[in-house]
Amino acid sequence: MSQPVSSGPVTVTYYSDVLCVWAYVANIRLDELRRQFGSRIAIRQRLCSVFADVETKVRMGWRDRGGVPGFRTHVAQVIEGFDHVSLHADVWERSVPTSSFTAHACIKAVELLNTSTPAPEPTTPSPAEQFAWQLRLAFFRDGRDVSRVGVQLAVASELGLPVDAISARLEDGTAWAALHRDYELAAAESVRGSPTFVLNERRQMLYGNVGYKIIEANVVELLRNPGEQASWC
Known about the structure:
By secondary structure, the protein is α+β, with helices and mostly antiparallel strands. The protein has a single domain, classed as 3-Layer(aba) Sandwich (Glutaredoxin), CATH 3.40.30. Helices cover about 50% and strands about 10% of the residues. It contains nine helices and four strands; from the N terminus they run E-H-E-H-H-H-H-H-H-H-E-E-H. It has a four-stranded mixed beta sheet with strand order 2-1-3-4, sandwiched between helices. Helix 4 packs across helix 7 (about 165-170). It is globular. The two termini are about 30 Å apart.
């Protein structure tokens, strides 16, 4: 691939829900973007609400398709198509979360803890992004109910994150306010679901199971043609 030149990094905003199987599958594409483009892109991970109410989303939404067991079969079929992810036998079987809302708030709490620290290297996910990935692994790979605050804090502790400081951000409401801002931005940007890649000032939106080469092609074109070139009109 030729090395395009740009006056500044291309921003890729990535919206996802921690309980979304397609976002679990897609995380490797974020890693590849970082590896391929380094400082020429800036990845901003945000959260959107897909599984905030599992009762409505899964139990009711899948009522005519087998309910939770039917949804579990769907998730298993998705994961069977990818060799870089795995699924624990308990997921959507004995481990059925109630909501992604609490896990999302905990992710924002971790994000708030690092606002005054130096930004990570372009190829390194932030602590909040690493925590979000570990929550996905805890759920899909390990079968843990990540809607439970105790599980979230246990995962944070396993990463060496300051659990007391995270709890303080949850208790004082700042994490919830930050989460609300993500959800409001998702609505304002007309994000359809998880995962969604947003580029070029919302002119380009890639939603769902989008292959890496398609994402890469969009980034390369923006790097080759920086500035206001959205329309020839």
